[in-house]
Amino acid sequence: MSTNNATIYLKAEQNVELQSQDVYVKDIGSLTCSDPHVLAKVKAIRLYHFKKDEAKRQVISILKIIEEIGKVCPGATVESLGEPDILIEYINVNRHKGFLQWIKLVFVAFVSFFGTAFTIMAFHNDIGINDVFTKVYEMVTGLPGDGYGILELSYSAGLALGIIVFFNHIGGRRITKDPTPIEVEMRVYEQDVNKSLIETAEREGKTIDVS
Hints:
The protein is α/β, with parallel strands linked by helices. About 50% of the residues lie in helices and about 20% in strands. The chain has helices at about 35-45, 60-70, 100-125, 130-140, 150-165, 180-205; strands at about 5-10, 15-20, 20-25, 30-35, 45-50, 55-60, 75-80, 85-90, 170, 175.
């Protein structure tokens, strides 16, 4: 079947994680074409194979993908609507299963909880929060502060409530449909890491590109 009049629209993702060692065109993003036979042929094109002892991350140029498509479907037009370079990562999920994963989860939760608690306490100690509460108590009541009272209790409850509202989570439930600040920062961090890895591969000449 002729592919001279076929137009293939390709929207490549910036980062792709795979559990298979073989990388196909269908894995790197979304594709569409008016000819279903051409679309099926393009999706089945193998772009790369991760070998056992090599790096688990590779960067493939969109030009290389277009070149491979042109070999299988000569005369077809490829419209790229996505990223110019794709970071592909092979993940061996078997090494993340079992008891070790639970140990890592508990360790991260432990460090996060006590690390955050220590940071809050260190901050309060640095600004002298107890002295502030004592001064406020004396200004309002005219009496010397005599330990922990309603101010400390209200502040502690308000601090916990503020953290819950700010991070938009109560247990596993969201308060609103908006992404949490941590999710936003993680997306920004992920994009920065992807761009850095892609630029590093380009500078080192390791990008899988056209000849």
